[in-house]
Amino acid sequence: xxxxxxxxxxxxxxxxxxxxxxxxxxxxxxxxxxxxxxxxxxxxxxxxxxxxxxxxxxxxxxxxxxxxxxxxxxxxxxxxxxxxxxxxxxxxxxxxxxxxxxxxxxxxxxxxxxxxxxxxxxxxxxxxxxxxxxxxx
Length: 137
Ligand SMILES: [Zn+2]
Known about the structure:
The chain contains three helices and five strands, in the order αβββαββα. The chain is of the alpha+beta class and about 140 residues long. The chain has a single domain, classed as HIT-like (HIT family, subunit A). The chain has a five-stranded antiparallel sheet with strand order 1-2-3-5-4, with helices on one face. It starts with a helix and ends in a 5-residue tail after the last helix. Bound molecules: zinc ion (ZN).
């Protein structure tokens, strides 16, 4: 299996590493939206958010908050996004789960402003009921 992120974990590929521990590694995205755009990934290979085991997800989220804080405090952006793309339709290009931490600046070039829809009469409840029927805790 060819996976650039596994190669980074195994040090077969170079990356500008920000932090690592037994379970998680964080490094700079080689093609940043803005400079300082960081990634946080589990060292084990999981393809997406849904396939992450809870214990490792907890650690990835904890480290994502710590790296976000470091990005925010060191680079002083106006804001930042924490996002994860799941599936090609959502923009996922490396199928090894990762969070993006993207420093944002007022009027930067990155746009995430969709055309918002309105629910037709009653359909909001239908969508909620469909989703609620699949919530498994
Ligand atoms: Zn991988």
